[in-house]
């Protein structure tokens, strides 16, 4: 069993990963500045697992705060979620995104080196494939410049980590390229709690369902897809969380830097999300079709075979599970953790 530092562990994906790590018998230290999360999520993680974790409030850009964590705890591996993730906002305040995501990652790597901890799982995104390849995306496809600053930070960090691993064979790094995480823990105790108007589809749908928003706007219905709306690869957040547990185990045994897609490999359309959500949950989602959103690709989904072959990880949850669990969380927590 390992002692794992989870940066950004109070957030959406981080909190679900803490549950899976604790359930698998690992020790967890969460390091988070709570800029986009609540300590309540961590209280619920401990309640759900009946296990305790250590919480340190701090910022990954602060070297001395990080050093202290490594001094106080004998960490075996780090899972690095901390960072900013709103695509639109990253266009307005790029330097803030570079600071939290890129500088923050550099500070973390330096603190790890200093403490001789060389095992890292990094939250990357399928956005690093850019727009030039076509679905299903494989890990060895060439990467290209994402069309937004958030995606750019993920590409830069991936490349930085690869170079660090090339220069020093002690590093063992997993780059997990997430597709579209949705859903929530079955209990409805933890889930996604976006601040302000959601940018992503799923929280928008659940907020319409719960009456916080009037209607869903579907961006474009003239795409060359089965029903004219965009297709994405939605992955249940609990499956995604479990992928981190498999990745940590793999990395503790091997060295080098390796990328894995984390998706189901199944293209699901936006209209299919709305219709299946209505059917599974018995609620209506008033919807209108509007113009395409700039920067959206028609279809974006994974070839997820490498993760299955090399990590032994395979998604277990269906689309119906994702939509039922998203709704269960939103219904029980109409205003998130507030
Ligand atoms: P989230 O915002 O819920 O979680 C991120 C956490 O990091 C938050 O708890 C926040 O308080 C913390 N944080 C932010 N800046 C920090 C800093 N400087 N120091 C310490 N803590 C800081 O986001 P999430 O959806 O859980 O995403 C987790 C990671 O996965 C992010 O790196 C994100 O870019 C990546 N990712 C997310 C998605 C998605 O759709 N949710 C897709 C691909 C990749
Ligand atoms: C977006 C980001 C991507 C980021 C990912 C996770 C863009 C172009 N891409 O991916 O870089 O890694 O989020 O944070 O922003 N949709 C609607 N109505 C809505 C919201 C969304 O129709 O109100 C549609 C979109 O047009 C898209 C699909 O739903 O076709 C999924 O959208 P979203 O949840 O924002 O994810 P991505 O665009 O795939």
Structure report:
With 338 residues, the protein is an alpha/beta fold. The protein has a domain at 3-183 and 234-263 and 303-316: Rossmann fold, CATH 3.40.50.720. 41% of the residues lie in helices and 18% in strands. The protein has eleven helices and 14 strands. It has helices at residues 12-23, 39-49, 63-72, 87-92, 94-114, 149-167, 201-209, 237-253, 270-281, 305-311, 319-332; strands spanning 3-7, 27-32, 54-57, 77-80, 119-125, 172-178, 180-182, 216-219, 231-232, 234-236, 256-262, 268-269, 287-290, 299-300. The strands form four sheets. A seven-stranded parallel beta sheet has the order 3-2-1-4-5-6-11, with helices on both faces. Helix 1 packs parallel to helix 2, helix 1 packs across helix 8 (237-253) and helix 7 (201-209) packs across helix 11. The radius of gyration is 19 Å and the shape is globular. The structure holds nicotinamide-adenine-dinucleotide and uridine-diphosphate-N-acetylglucosamine. Uridine-diphosphate-N-acetylglucosamine (UD1) binds next to helix 7 and strand 8.
């Amino acid at each position: 069993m390992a002692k794992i530092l989870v940066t950004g562990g109070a957030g959406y994906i981080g909190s679900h990963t803490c549950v899976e790590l604790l359930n698998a018998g690992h020790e967890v230290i969460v390091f988070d500045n709570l800029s986009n999360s609540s300590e309540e999520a961590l209280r619920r993680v401990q309640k759900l697992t009946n296990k305790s974790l250590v919480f340190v409030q701090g910022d990954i850009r602060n070297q001395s705060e990080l050093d202290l964590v490594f001094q106080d705890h004998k960490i075996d591996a780090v899972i690095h979620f901390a960072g900013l993730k709103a695509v639109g906002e990253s266009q307005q305040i790029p330097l803030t995104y570079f600071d939290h995501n890129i500088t923050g990652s550099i500070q973390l790597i330096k603190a790890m080196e200093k403490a001789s901890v060389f095992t890292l799982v990094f939250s990357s995104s399928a956005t690093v494939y850019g727009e030039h390849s076509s679905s299903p995306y494989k890990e060895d496809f060439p990467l290209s410049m994402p069309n937004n600053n958030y995606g750019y930070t993920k590409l830069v960090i991936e490349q930085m980590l690869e170079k660090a691993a090339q220069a020093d064979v002690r590093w063992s790094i997993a780059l997990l390229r997430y597709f579209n995480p949705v859903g929530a823990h079955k209990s409805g105790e933890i889930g996604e709690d976006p601040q302000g108007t959601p940018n992503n589809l799923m929280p928008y749908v659940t907020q319409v369902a719960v009456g916080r928003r009037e209607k869903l706007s579907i961006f474009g219905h003239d795409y060359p897809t089965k029903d004219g709306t965009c297709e994405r690869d939605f992955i249940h957040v609990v499956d995604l969380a479990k992928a981190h547990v498999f990745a940590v185990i793999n990395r503790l045994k091997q060295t080098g830097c390796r990328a894995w897609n984390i998706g189901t490999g199944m293209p699901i359309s936006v209209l299919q999300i709305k219709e299946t959500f209505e059917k599974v949950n018995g609620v209506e989602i008033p919807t209108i079709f509007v113009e395409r959103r700039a920067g959206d690709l028609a279809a974006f989904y994974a070839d997820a075979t490498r993760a299955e072959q090399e990590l032994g990880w395979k998604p277990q949850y269906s689309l119906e599970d994702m939509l039922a669990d998203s709704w269960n969380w939103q219904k029980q927590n109409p205003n998130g953790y507030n």
